[in-house]
Amino acid sequence: MTTHQAWLDDVRPNPYADQLAIGFRRLRFVRTLEQEYRRYMLEDSFDLRRLTLCAGMLVWLAFAVLDFFLVPASTERWWMFAIRIGVLALLLACGLLLLIRRHIHLLVPLSVTCILAPGLGAAAVVAVAHTVDPSYPYEGLLLICMVAYFLAGLRLTEALASSVVVLIGYVAFELLAGLVLPRLINNVLFLLFGNLMGLVGCYLLEYKSREHFLVVRLMRILADHDALTGLHNRRSFDRQLERLWRQAQRESLPLALLLCDIDHFKAYNDHYGHQAGDAVLRRAGAVVADAARRPLDMAVRLGGEEFAVLLYDISQPQALQRAEELRAALEALKLRHERSDTAEMVTLSIGVASVQPADGGEFAQLYAHADRALYEAKAFGRNQVVA
Ligand SMILES: Nc1nc2c(ncn2[C@@H]2O[C@H](COP(=O)(O)OP(=O)(O)OP(=O)(O)O)[C@@H](O)[C@H]2O)c(=O)[nH]1
């Protein structure tokens, strides 16, 4: 069903691309992605669920009023009214819980309750009404099933299970109330076909929702990462630097930036060719990635043969040590570079800047400081770290 096969192979391995490639016709992802998708759905459908519940309560109330015109005055009519009020009270209770966002973990059970209560309530009301007037409309039950399929933010399995319970409840109530069999069969067939359409629509909707989830996340990763090395790119770096700067200001913690540049890379390219140059960039990228070990650290390919490592909550001596380890790690790879004036292998010059954002200043200054240090590292003979 997916049309992305042609370019997906170019961006694999990647969890979202892998899932798109293997497909999800049964509306299920691999475990970790499935959990992520469900969390996303809860957040994404929250407002829809609240809106549907408010609208649903108004419609339910309108039908309660309508009963007084449709059904002649009788004990049955008061029973119907009592059921409607009971359901409304339950919906109100669920609504109160839904309106408070911190009950998001209860969202699925609450939503299912908000389908089952009016669904079974309506089934009971219809059955009671049919004891006095067999032509009393039962089609409203289908409306409730449609809400389950399309407007309650439920997944297909949840919507289907809720609708099946409502249908079984309807049949049970009608049998108890004694509705004649041909009429009951007619009503059930109508409800079943209606549900079948809802089922197909809900399947297609959830399939598209899942596809959208995967594609958007994949796009975000592609937009934020460098294709050659897999490191973060400049756009992602700019965003993270601004974010970390503010966090470091709030928490009064230091921030360090290591700007790294491969020495004599033009000469390497000219001598060994562009493809060999790409291979060196990949190896260097892996070494740079190793320097960003903690969750808030970030390894970046800024462009060409320039890399950066952003380090959170690290003192200047520690940042210098990390830079020296990084420089030594690339040197230790002993990637032969015959045209380098500095050494026989590919080497790295690193400029280090370390600041305490709480002391004031702009995050651009951190970059400018590291850039100046890198310039000096190049000027002093390359293959070295300067702070
Ligand atoms: N193979 C390859 N080369 C690239 C890529 N991006 C940029 N380059 C090359 O990187 C080289 C950078 O050269 P310069 O900026 O002169 O730097 P340098 O030769 O390393 O000189 P110093 O930095 O002063 O030591 C250029 O030849 C670019 O064509 C890439 O993605 N792949």
Automatic annotation (TrEMBL):
From the UniProt record, list the reaction(s) this protein catalyses. 2 GTP = 3',3'-c-di-GMP + 2 diphosphate
Membrane-crossing ranges are 51-72, 78-99, 106-129, 159-181, 187-205
Question: By its UniProt entry, which InterPro entries does this protein fall under?
Answer: Diguanylate_Cyclase, GGDEF_dom, Nucleotide_cyclase, Rev_trsase/Diguanyl_cyclase
List each copy of the GGDEF domain by range: 253-387
**UniProt source species:** Zestomonas insulae
Please state what the protein is called: diguanylate cyclase
Please provide the record's keywords in A-Z order: Membrane, Transmembrane, Transmembrane helix
**UniProt-listed Enzyme Commission number(s):** 2.7.7.65
Q: Where is the signal peptide?
A: none
